[in-house]
Write a sequence for this structure.
């Protein structure tokens, strides 16, 4: 709070932590990863229904060709990320640790579908109508690339009776270690600005704010310097604080509005899209290119060369690690995503999905949790909770299966940022129990 | 990779703060060292002996009870027995007989902490439970303070009353406050720590150094200590304004006795203070209120120990009814698009 008085950087008001941001790969330019021999493309890479498979074993597919189509509105199309022959279609382990249906494709050459514009030239003319924009984004299978993987066309379809007055472009990247969004902003600033205008047109809003944390000065300066000619777009620098990149926290920080408990950002007139998603939107609408590749940070303190790779969806994780110097001897844990909210993976052959923002390798010594002690009621978890919950109490209630009480204590507003577990001096697995409690609270809400 | 070649998997988060229980406990111990040094300077080596013996007694009590009565793993090295011991020592005169100190340690750790289930489960501050037990059981020994005599002060040093005690006796004998004040140490010398008193409550300055250290290390937040100090100041100022010849000035009340010690080290005890910032402020206000009430109208010259214990009893209630602001409820969670369009 006190630092608010000495600078003009915005931030959310309540809670938050300051973990070591460890952006080891911040200066590593985006490098295209060599094509893998085989890709594994899950048909459920998004929130909502899995896509319906359109191909059969033995079919030849080109890069960008649709291979699975959305089922219903909250779902997303899946395209082939490579050129080659469709192999086994079966249940396969993905980064969630569970088996889901996936299509394997053996790579042969690199032929792209004809309709895709492969030129590097910037296309600033937005000719598509708002409806066409949403349709193209839907066709291209664009989903939220910050981690949630919510289909983007759904977010752009504002419900009847709701008004949106601000579009926020999320370039916060508050997860420690990750630098994918940072590099996209540095290397594709104009594309992001055009993408932002595309989104503004689709939503018919006249104000968009690109939000960047203050540990990315270069990105803030660069984006600011390119704003001319892009009406209605501004850049907002934010204090470095986790979980600033959370949709709710970002809206609070920038617009001083709170998403109602149980509601959506659209309820307070805001729509948030990640910068990676915005870049994908640019490619989908202006270049006719579906979402078949993304930038992934590969990082870790013992990794030889922490890097940012442009990776085809479905590439095995092990390929990225090999290109960054190989799995270090000391590695104990590999995480898909960042250290605060990412998922530990058990098998390095799982594929990169649309929402995989990073691969983080943690040393053996830091992989295991420390001994747990009694709760001291120190209140640190209460202090850091950005939602204003009482994590220590929710843990106690959840442990005793008090679903009605956890529900009354707003357990379902928890977004699992992990600040409580991070700060607990007694090493208590607070979030583990809150997750269990949320499951039970959901059950009694929807019997 | 591990010997087995397998990767570790666990739910997020995968990183953790460096500030664990052990680290916090040792930082609190460090924060208490300036006060200990002032005490050694004033009362000589006996201050050090009392402190070390109190720590030793508390550690032994904890070890014996946990090992032989509860048959559990001994967690001595979390440092909490050290803190309880130091705080107990800080709350007694340096010339206290050691057997009384031992009784205090057994009551603090045995009854104050372990009888409730150990660290984290005790409703009352263990060191204060011990202190109040001793104050009631050994009123003479607990209120016979040595006069500060420098490093060379021996066992045969003169004993004297604390400024608060002198004030109470003076008032009882019909003197007016300004008259009594002329015989008491100045505010400045009380701030530095030159008056009679318990081992650790000598110097407001030493407490402030400890407070700044703990704030800077993020061991505690400002909410409890500052509200206690401010509320003692404000409540005593009210009475001082009403009748300055009957009531001492607020600065005297803040600097005398155990207010600073209580505010910085006793009331801030994690286990026995509220969890939310709002709750902490209510807790601090209550302590200030009861301290002034006991000092001005109670039988004892000093009231902070009782005030903290009373407010300890309210902590579960405060935690139940005083919550942080819940994101997504209240004024900022409503949105009127029309208003906004008018503004822009």
């Amino acid at each position: 709070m006190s630092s608010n008085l000495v600078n003009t950087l915005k931030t959310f008001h309540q809670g938050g932590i300051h973990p070591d941001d460890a952006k080891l790969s911040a200066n590593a330019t985006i490098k295209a990863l060599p094509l893998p021999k085989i890709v594994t493309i899950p048909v459920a890479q998004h929130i909502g229904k899995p896509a319906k498979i359109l191909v059969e074993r033995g079919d030849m597919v080109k890069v960008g060709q649709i291979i699975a189509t959305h089922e219903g509105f909250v779902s997303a199309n899946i395209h082939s990320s490579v050129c080659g022959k469709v192999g086994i279609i079966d249940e396969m382990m993905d980064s969630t640790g569970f088996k889901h249906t996936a299509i394997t494709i053996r790579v042969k050459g690199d032929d792209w579908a004809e309709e895709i514009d492969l030129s590097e030239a910037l296309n600033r003319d937005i000719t598509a109508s708002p409806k066409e924009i949403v349709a193209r984004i839907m066709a291209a299978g664009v989903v939220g690339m910050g981690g949630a993987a919510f289909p983007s066309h759904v977010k752009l379809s504002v419900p009847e009776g709701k008004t949106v007055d601000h579009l926020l472009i999320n370039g916060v990247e508050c997860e420690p270690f990750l630098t994918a969004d940072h590099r996209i902003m540095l290397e594709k600033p104009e594309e992001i600005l055009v993408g932002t205008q595309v989104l503004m047109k689709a939503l018919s809003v006249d104000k968009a704010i690109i939000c960047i944390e203050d540990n990315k000065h270069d990105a803030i300066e660069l984006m600011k310097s390119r704003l001319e000619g892009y009406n209605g777009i501004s850049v907002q620098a934010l204090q470095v604080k986790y979980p600033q990149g959370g949709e709710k926290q970002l809206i609070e920080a920038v617009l001083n509005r709170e998403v109602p408990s149980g509601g959506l950002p659209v309820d307070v007139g805001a729509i948030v899209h990640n910068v990676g998603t915005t870049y994908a939107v640019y490619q989908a609408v202006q270049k006719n290119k579906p979402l078949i590749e993304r930038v992934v940070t590969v990082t870790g303190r013992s990794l030889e060369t922490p890097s940012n790779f442009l990776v085809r969806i479905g590439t095995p994780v092990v390929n990225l690690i090999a290109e960054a110097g190989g799995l270090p001897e000391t590695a104990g844990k590999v995480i898909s995503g960042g250290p605060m909210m990412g998922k530990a993976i058990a098998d390095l052959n799982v594929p990169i999905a649309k929402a995989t923002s990073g691969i983080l390798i943690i040393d053996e010594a830091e992989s295991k949790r420390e001994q747990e002690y009694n709760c001291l009621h120190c209140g640190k978890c209460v202090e850091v909770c950005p939602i204003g919950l009482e994590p220590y109490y929710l843990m106690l209630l959840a442990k005793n299966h008090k679903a009605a009480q956890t529900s009354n204590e707003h357990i379902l507003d928890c977004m699992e940022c992990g600040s409580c577990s991070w700060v607990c001096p007694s090493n208590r697995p607070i979030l583990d129990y809150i997750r269990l409690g949320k499951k039970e609270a959901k059950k009694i809400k929807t019997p | 990779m591990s010997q087995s070649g397998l990767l570790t998997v666990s739910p997020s988060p995968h990183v953790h703060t460096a500030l664990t229980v052990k680290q916090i406990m040792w930082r609190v111990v460090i924060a208490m060292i300036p006060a200990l040094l002032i005490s050694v300077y004033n009362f000589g080596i006996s201050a050090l002996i009392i402190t070390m013996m109190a720590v030793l007694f508390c550690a032994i009590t904890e070890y014996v009870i946990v090992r032989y009565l509860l048959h559990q793993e001994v967690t001595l090295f979390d440092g909490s027995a050290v803190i309880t011991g130091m705080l107990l020592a800080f709350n007694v005169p340096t010339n206290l007989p050691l057997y009384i100190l031992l009784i205090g340690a057994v009551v603090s750790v045995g009854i104050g902490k372990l009888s409730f289930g150990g660290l984290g489960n005790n409703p009352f501050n263990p060191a204060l439970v011990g202190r109040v037990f001793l104050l009631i059981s050994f009123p003479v020994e607990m209120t016979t303070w040595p006069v500060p005599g420098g490093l060379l002060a021996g066992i045969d040093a003169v004993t004297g009353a604390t400024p608060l005690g002198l004030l109470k006796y003076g008032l009882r004998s019909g003197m007016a406050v300004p008259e009594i004040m002329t015989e008491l140490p100045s505010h400045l010398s009380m701030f530095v720590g030159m008056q009679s008193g318990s081992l650790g409550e000598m110097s407001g300055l030493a407490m402030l150094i400890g407070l700044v250290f703990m704030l800077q290390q993020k061991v505690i937040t400002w909410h409890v200590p500052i509200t206690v100090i401010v509320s003692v100041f404000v409540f005593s100022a009210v009475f001082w304004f009403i009748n300055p010849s009957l009531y001492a000035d607020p600065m005297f009340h803040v600097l005398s006795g155990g207010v600073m010690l209580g505010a910085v080290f006793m009331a801030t005890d994690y286990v026995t203070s509220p969890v939310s910032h709002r709750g902490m402020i209510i807790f601090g206000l209550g302590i200030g209120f009861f301290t002034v009430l006991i000092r001005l109208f109670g039988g004892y010259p000093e009231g902070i120990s009782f005030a903290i214990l009373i407010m300890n009893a309210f902590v579960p209630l405060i935690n139940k009814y005083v919550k942080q602001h819940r994101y997504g409820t209240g004024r900022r969670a409503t949105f009127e698009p029309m208003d906004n369009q008018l503004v822009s």
